[in-house]
Amino acid sequence: MSGQLTAGGVPQAHAKAAVLIEALPWLERFRGKTVVVKYGGHAMADQALRESFADDMVFLLHAGLKPVVVHGGGPQINAHLDRLGIESSFTAGLRVTTPEAMQVVRMVLVGQVNRDIIGLVNRHGPFAIGMSGEDAHLFTAERKHAEVNGEKVDIGQVGEIVRVEAGAVRALLDDGRIPVVSSIARGEEGEIYNVNADTAAAALAVALGAEKLVVLTDVEGLYADWPASGDVSASEVISRVTAGELAKLLPGLSSGMVPKMEACLTAVTGGVPQAHVLDGRVPHSLLLEIFTDEGIGTMVLPEVDA
């Protein structure tokens, strides 16, 4: 009969109710606040995780938050370059971006990855709208050089964001939309640059006065003592770290974590109250961080005034 509870049904129902009650103060705190999410890594490659990420964005919107997605697409770019037979190399962790490679980067990020995210979100309604960092002069960049043994090395059309004009993103947020931004930038003279999605997300979070920056990655967070053997199970995740503490840790971090933690540092020193690095391989990790008391991953906080 409808409405009857099976054995164990009442405890399960109580557990669900407890989760909802636990979320209440966080719903009150973050209602109307902007959350910038950098999306990439394994969560972007696995179909089930892609769908759960899109569900999370719509949940945040319905919960009264203002989510913004900033994405890269390294694996998709690599795959397309390989199919076209275009060589791609990295210097100091940055992709050497020739004019030929830049055409592919732009096409994949704006025409493929961005559209895929929008399609998944918009299964739930007319919420997501795609943008490139070129649109409405959102991101303006200057050419960035790699540094190898103290020497500057030209790596092509790789940019460092120097200005953010976030008016178009604010207009979309005010209209109840979810902006989905690909990490391409313009130059002052009409050049097109490939920019790191972590740093792009941090720059946009600062410009928007966001309440949070969340960086989804392929590890649990920032490890206190990353072992040389790579045995993750032997390492402990740092749950909280201040900007000053993080600045001291940065020189010793692995190359893959540096841009993510630098992005968090940029955000909190630029006025964003909290930045987080979360494991994007965990379904709904974003909701666990925002709406539960314990949270997950690593939280970066500004320095507390003495």
Number of helices: 10
Secondary-structure-based class equals alpha/beta
The helix-strand sequence is HEHHEHEEHEEEHEEEHEEHHEHE
Q: Give the biggest beta sheet.
A: 8 strands, mixed
Helix content: 25-40%
Low-confidence stretches: none
**Multimerization status:** single chain
Structure explained in plain terms:
With 306 residues, the chain is of the alpha/beta class. It is 40% helix and 25% strand. The protein is built from 10 helices and 14 strands. The strands form 4 sheets. It has an 8-stranded mixed sheet, sandwiched between helices. Strands 3-4 form a two-stranded antiparallel ribbon. A two-stranded antiparallel sheet has the order 6-7. Strand 6 and strand 7 form a beta hairpin. The longest helix is centred in the middle third of the chain and has 23 residues. It is globular, with a radius of gyration of 20 Å.
